[in-house]
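Agenda item 2: 3,4-dihydroxyphenylalanine complex prediction
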Amino acid sequence: MQEKINEIKSNLVSDLEVVNKPQDIVDLKAKYIGKSGCITELTKNMRDLSVEEKKTVGMLVNEVKNYANDLISKKEEDINTKILNEKLANESIDVTLPATSIKAGSPNILEKVVEDFEEVFMSMGYDVYDGPEIEEDRFNFELLNIPKGHPARDAQDTFYIKDDEILLRSQTSPVQARVMLEKGGNEPVRMICPGKTYRRDDDDATHSHQFTQIEGLLVDHNISLSDLKGTCDQIAKKLFGEDTNTRFKPSYYQFTEPSVELDISCFNCKGKGCNICKNTGWITVAGAGMVHPNVLKMCGYDPQEWNGFAFGFGAERCAMLKYGINDLRVFYNTDLRETSNFDRKEND
Ligand code: DAH
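Presented output:
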């Protein structure tokens, strides 16, 4: 038996000398300590031995088994370490190679313009309000002095959702009525409300069934048209540049009297005339006016005591002018090449 064991040991040592890959280790385990390995074989005829002999053989077999296990595990570890080192050496990183660039997103240019408006108005003491896009006819029209059946409704091709009562707001002006009613008729109002509006329009370069307005309302005592003009002038200078001039053109809205359109001097040609301003030197950016006494009254303010002005800017139009965009559909697509171009313009 001892002889056999010695033989196994020396075979194992010489076998170990030539193994160099994980599969060799698997084979070696099978050959020596596996179910039908030669060390396990030694215990095969144990049942014919005496108790005393069993004890001795058992000890010898255990000893050689541990010996084989130790040597094989050690070899296995060496092989794994060698493989790992080779892998690390081959996979070394060349830090001088240029990195793959990670494309960062950029803010939507329309949102940015809306944020600019908010910032300027907040600096002038205005609060920023939000209102529902699914609106009641009452707020969108009636409280703004546009009763049912009035021809002024036709100009706003409205999406009705339920009967004649629930609609997608066609303007942000209903938020004026909401805020006045909320205030209860006895405190001044100074608010803007940017938001989405909807009209049944075909989509093309300058029209969209969904667009963005920035509504504004100021109600107080002894407000005049010159307050509105001064406010618009400040806003235009802050948003379009200090050398921007403004003018009012007469206009008509049901909810303001008098009503005006706000023009800014063309920032491109500085008023000389170019294709952006269609050679007029001026560009229209908002509708505005003094709040109609009927609107004040319906919304809980006594027109003998209170008055004010209101305005509505077209956000897409402002963004298109500011960034020289000639198709408003770019605001609603997600092409990063377009938005990063705007960034570049901004930094020029
Ligand atoms: N709501 C108007 C529109 O959609 C814009 C507007 C004009 C808003 C005059 C106002 C205003 O608040 O006073 O065309």
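Discussion summary: DSSP finds eleven helices and ten strands in the chain.
Owner for follow-up: CH.
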